Amino acid sequence: MKAARAALGLVSLFAATWAVAQGTLETRRSGYQDMGAALRQMQDDDTANPGMLFVQLGAAAWDKPAGASGKSCADCHGAASGMKGVAARYPAIPPGADKPVDLGGRINLCRTGRQQAEPWPAEHRDLLALEALVALQSRGEPIAPPADPRLAPFRERGAEIYRRRQGQLNLSCAICHDDNAGKQLAGVVIPQAHPTGYPIYRLEWQALGSLQRRLRNCLVGVRADAWPLDAMEYVELETYLMDRARGMKIESPAVRP
Amino acid sequence: MANVLINVPKTARRGEVIEIKAMILHPMETGFRPGTNGRIIPRNIIERFTATWNGTEVFSMAMSPAIAANPFVSFFAVARDSGTIALRWTGDEGFAVEERVAITVG
Fold first, then answer.
1. What ipTM was assigned to the predicted interfaces of this complex?
2. A53, A64, A200: best mutation site toward chain B, by most B Cβ within 10 Å?
3. What gap in Å lies between CA A86 and CA A181, rounded to an integer?
4. Any chain B CB within 8 A of the CB of A60?
5. Which 3 state secondary structure label does DSSP give A207?
6. Based on the structure, what is the number of domains in chain B?
7. Which of B57, B60, B59, B72 lies closest to B25, judged by CA?
8. Domain positions in chain A
9. CATH number for region A29-257
10. Which residues in B lie closer than 8 A to residue A56 (C-beta atoms)?
11. Per-block average pLDDT, block size 10, for chain B (106 residues)?
12. Which of B4, B5, B21 should we substitute to test contact with A (largest number of A Cβ atoms within 10 Å)?
């Protein structure tokens, strides 16, 4: 009898830990929840969120023909509202390719392949503006990485990078964003690093920027050499981070301090 | 292309105090920062913002290099007559943008 009760206790204990592991007790927090009321209000008001200025730029670029094909995004995709859910599933492996690209990379593939135009360099304003326009369509959608088994090795490499100590400060992403998230680093709360709102309008940048730019900031922060702009490491890390944030709601274009 | 976000109520009661919010895409380059080549990037800021209601000035401000990029301005005005609110930004390098919004006061 005693043994049976003990076993039952163990089972319920396992059930509880399993529930936590499954995220039924949500412990993940978007950076939004760690911001002050003023910044949250700024993000929520579409006439006060500076990211919306870039969405307007993106809407203009969406309809503008580019490259030798003379085609615009709208010529193939129709209205931008048709892109709902797209930003929630990138990075993904495009047809005919063998490695994942992020949303910006996908836009550049369209640009070189379909529009036959020059690709935009990293952090180009028009590229970010189109990303913001596309990501806005997924606002409120849960992050849903594709079930493509070919993504697994990239995700695992991303996870490995996330836990690898780097730079002169010898810190990994996990040391700050898993072990010490919610505590303070100087004056700011360390967020859990869920990429829910990219591209973000960061007040420190006074501009819209990509997740890649944010990752470069962290790399410089731990005094590591940032990878080159076209490095696969960024996409691998993003693949892992999007899986880690699976189910959380997209809030692009987000505002962050 | 002027890229502006304006938030003005479409209608207001006579005598009501309304909030007018406006944001514009602008680098607000201070003129104090060196570029990647080591040379100072020339100053490029918005110097003045004015709002007129049916031609009468209801708000104006001078801007300085200390104001961040994409400046957001919010101010209040008393609604007296239906008509047009014109918002105007002028600054360095011949920058001049005017946006108009209609408001019905009843």
1. 0.90
2. A53
3. 29
4. yes
5. strand
6. 1
7. B72
8. 29-257
9. 1.10.760.10
10. 3, 5
11. 86 95 95 94 96 95 95 95 95 95 93
12. B5
How many residues can be counted in chain A?
257
Kindly report whether the peptide bond that precedes residue A65 is cis, defined as omega within 30 degrees of 0. Answer: no
Chain B CB contacts of A203 under 8 Å are 68
* pLDDT number for residue A21: 53
Q: Residue B49: give the domain boundaries.
A: 4-33+40-105
* A residues 207-226 lying closer than 8 A (beta carbon) to B: 207
d(C-alpha B28, C-alpha A9), whole Å: 64
pTM: 0.88
Q: Which residue has the tokens 């301005």?
A: B73
Residue pairs between chains A and B whose CB atoms are closer than 8 Å: 34
Q: Tell me: the pLDDT tens digits for A125-146?
A: 999 999 999 999 999 999 999 9
Give bridge partners of residue B39 from the DSSP assignment.
none
Q: Is A68 exposed, middle or buried (0-12, 13-18, 19+ CB in 10 A)?
A: exposed
Per the CB < 8 A criterion, the answer to whether A201 and A255 are in contact is: yes
Asked if residues B101 and B85 have their Cβ atoms less than 8 Å apart, the reply is yes
- Spell out which residues of chain B touch residue A57, defining contact as CB-CB under 8 Å: 3, 25
Token pair in block for residue B8: 């003005």
CATH of the domain at B96: 2.60.40.10
